[in-house]
């Protein structure tokens, strides 16, 4: 069935209101996207959702819906009356889930590691293959920050090591570490859905018995051989004392989710505790790594 998509420009104060308006006008679904690619944090359970300062609210309508009437109604109730910024788009009639699945291909990182969608055959049965079913949480390997961390893990000897994955998301880094030989991985995330996604992906890969998952309030006090934190520069800065406590003597640390213009400050901050390596860059993103002094 063909669809029409209505996009309205909003901000953190008006996004929820616009969503209600679109639903009231017969929208089949409403989606929020970031208009300027600014990161947003997943809220803690029970916390209020905070939207981006520049948000696009998208409503999906059946192609037969009277969009002239919808636009007229929205303009009438819009605070600026006729000054509502919007765009109508005709969407091609296709199986969107099938389209998405067809476009997600196996990806290789480093020399040994492949990340493979669970619905595709592995390209190299002799390689280290992580079967991933992305859905509930961020982390498919397609983003440069994840790719940088996967390549770093592939270059390590993880046999018998204990790894902490701080901000585990879908569990992609945890699973990669376990498949690459780590004895145990501790995954930590503020989002219960991320922990659920990590567990389901671990079961799919047969490594769930070596993966322990925790919310921050429950996280154990442990010294790990390797710590990886692929989050964002803000939390990496604010949570530095927490993250560094997981790194054992001579342990290895990798940090990502950092833009190039944020890297130097964090390298200096973590340089208090670690001998830092040269910064690795992919597109505009970086990975910082080092060894605990």
UniProtKB/TrEMBL annotation:
Binding site for S-adenosyl-L-methionine: 146, 167, 189, 230
Catalytic activity: L-lysyl-[protein] + 3 S-adenosyl-L-methionine = N(6),N(6),N(6)-trimethyl-L-lysyl-[protein] + 3 S-adenosyl-L-homocysteine + 3 H(+)
GO biological process: methylation
GO molecular function per UniProt: methyltransferase activity
GO cellular component assignments: ribosome
Alphabetical list of InterPro entries matching this protein: Ribosomal_L11_MeTrfase_PrmA, Ribosomal_PrmA_MeTrfase, SAM-dependent_MTases_sf
EC number of this enzyme: 2.1.1.-
Residue spans crossing the bilayer: none
Class of enzymatic activity (EC top level): transferase
Compartment annotation: Cytoplasm
Main location: cytoplasm
Lineage: superkingdom: Bacteria
Keyword Disulfide bond: no
Any one Pfam family match given in the protein's UniProt record, by short name: PrmA
The protein's role, per its UniProt record: Methylates ribosomal protein L11.
Family: Belongs to the methyltransferase superfamily. PrmA family.
HAMAP family reported in the protein's UniProt record: Methyltr_PrmA
UniProt-recorded name of the protein: Ribosomal protein L11 methyltransferase
Annotated source species: Thalassotalea profundi
